[in-house]
Amino acid sequence: MAGLAELLLAQGRLFTPAARPGGFAAGTPGTCFATASRMADEHADLLYVEGMVLADGVPFAFDHAWCVRAASDHVIESTLPDGPAWPTSAIALTDDYRREQQALRGVNAVITGGGINLADNADALRGGLPSHAWLPVGRPLPSTTETSARS
After folding, report:
1. Which 3 state secondary structure label does DSSP give 50?
2. Half-sphere exposure of 98 toward its Cβ, with a 13 Å CA cutoff?
3. Neighbour count for residue 129 (Cβ, 10 Å)
């Protein structure tokens, strides 16, 4: 692996957009990493997810964080309005790994940009996340043979 895209292709999963459940307020735009982290800390049944998202009116995918329930692939959005965003590939991180990496780096983003020096991710970007860092939540990405067969 050489970068974030390769990491997300190798270990990422797919998640389903969903309306934000009652009781969850959207955080301020631009605070997705901190807001999703806080949500995961405040709700024991939520997992922090980090990856890339597409949104209406934005011509490129961008780094983003949200939450999911451990038994679901439905997004509980941290900051974006309901409806106009589609998660691409992302990784559900364990609480221990997330907190460890946030403390180590002094920022809320763990594997994506989010204001961190991507050199901090050199080991993960080169060899993948360690097994204790992530959870197989969400749907597996289609294999390249499945993608090729549909083309």
Report:
1. strand
2. 24
3. 20
Reported as a single tens digit per residue, the pLDDT across 5-44 is 888 888 999 999 888 999 999 999 899 999 999 999 999 9
The Cα–Cα gap between 26 and 43 comes to: 15
| Residue where the block lists tokens 């289609």 | 142
Quote the mean pLDDT of the chain.
85
The tokens for 31 are 């605070």
Say what the alpha-carbon torsion angle 99, 42, 88, 27 is, to the nearest 10 degrees. Answer: -110
| CA–CA dist 13, 123 (Å, integer) | 20
pTM, whole model, 2 decimals? 0.88
Pairing of strands 139-140, 13-14: antiparallel
d(CA 151, CA 147): 7
